[in-house]
Amino acid sequence: MKRILIAIVALLAGLGPLSAQKIGYINTDTILSEIPAYVAAQTQLNTLSDKYRATIETELGKIETLYQNYQNSRNSMSSTQRQNAENEIITKERVVQEKQKIYFGEDGIMAKKAEELLTPIREQVDKAIAKVAEAGGYGLIIDLAAQQGIVYKNPALDLSAQVLSVYNKDNQ
Fold first, then answer.
1. d(C-alpha 75, C-alpha 23), whole Å
2. 3-class SS of residue 21
3. 144 pLDDT above the threshold of 50
4. Is residue 13 part of a domain?
5. Which residues pair with 143 in a beta bridge?
6. Chain mean position to CA 82
7. How many domains does the chain have?
8. Cys bridge to 24: 17, 103, 149, 159, which one at CB 3.0-4.6 A?
């Protein structure tokens, strides 16, 4: 029992310095939506994504047509012809799955393009956040865009406008 009491006292004593720190919050979604370069990059990514999706959908449509034709003529085919038709459909499906992975996979074209276009902007925003935190003496800044479960926020603690101002000043 004494150990638990000592642990609680030590924990509360350790939290003392944190309680003296200022806390604020930001919303990176709001900040990023106000940065023209970020909006342009998102538009470019959406256009590229739409192009790749259309390519995939076209190829899936062709496979669907091939499958329907197979279903309609399956009864009149020999077992060898059926096997060849099934293999062709399966091969085309695998090719489309591979293209999806190439376009939209974790290391795919879209992920690399997003990293190329968005990472420099996000890094500049992170620098602006750090500057606001240092200038204002903030010990903790919470990102509402990344946090689920925030049940109350005081608008007076919102630092999003300050971060955006520092970002714009640094990137003129």
1. 72
2. coil
3. yes
4. no
5. 26
6. 43
7. 1
8. 159
Tokens read off for 31 = 């900040």
3-state helix, strand, coil in the chain (%, to 5): 75, 5, 15
d(CA 167, CA 33): 13
Q: 56: domain range?
A: 20-170
Using 50, 70 and 90 to split pLDDT, how confident is the model at 20? low
- Provide the whole-model pTM: 0.73
Q: State whether residue 24 is helix, strand or coil.
A: strand
| Alpha-carbon torsion angle 73, 76, 80, 84, nearest 10 | -10
Locate 41 and state its tokens. Answer: 């990059």
In a domain, 95, yes or no: yes
Amino acid identity for residue 5 in this structure: L
What is the H or E stretch that residue 138 is in?
strand 138-143
Question: What kind and span of H or E run contains 127?
Answer: helix 109-136
Amino acid found at 120: P
Cα distance between residue 80 and residue 25, in whole Å: 67
